[in-house]
């Protein structure tokens, strides 16, 4: 009997310095992605797994939303055992787009 192990490819990350303004704005234009960013901003670094967010989308759509956030330089992910955990790249993103995250995170 052959034992099978699943190996996920490590996610690719875009540094915020390489992100054009329209890409950053598009990533932050979706309500689900805003929810993800807000929840990450209120959580300790590397404590939130992808499945821990309360958003009204399935796993495939959630993966897509995280890919968009990674592509915009907003989120960094790493695998810890069977879970993929996340951190908001707040300092790096703020350096590239000063004040943009503060506007998104502000609740009026």
UniProtKB/TrEMBL annotation:
Compositional bias annotation for Basic and acidic residues: 1-18
Q: Where is this region: Disordered?
A: 1-21
Report the CDD domains cross-referenced here: HTH_ARSR
Stretches assigned to the HTH arsR-type domain:
23-102
InterPro entries listed in its UniProt record: ArsR-like_HTH (IPR011991), HTH_ArsR_DNA-bd_dom (IPR001845), WH-like_DNA-bd_sf (IPR036388), WH_DNA-bd_sf (IPR036390)
What is this protein's name?
ArsR/SmtB family transcription factor
Q: What is the phylogenetic placement of the source species in the record?
A: Bacteria, Bacillati, Actinomycetota, Actinomycetes, Kitasatosporales
């Amino acid at each position: 009997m052959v034992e099978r192990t699943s190996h996920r490819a490590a996610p690719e990350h875009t540094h915020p310095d390489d992100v054009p303004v329209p890409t950053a704005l598009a990533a932050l234009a979706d309500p689900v992605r805003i929810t993800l960013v807000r929840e990450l901003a209120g959580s300790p670094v590397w404590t939130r797994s992808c499945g821990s967010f309360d958003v009204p989308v399935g796993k495939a759509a959630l993966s897509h939303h995280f890919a968009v956030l990674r592509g915009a330089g907003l989120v960094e992910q790493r695998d810890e055992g069977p879970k993929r955990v996340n951190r908001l790249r707040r300092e790096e993103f703020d350096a590239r787009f000063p004040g943009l995250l503060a506007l998104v995170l502000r609740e009026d």
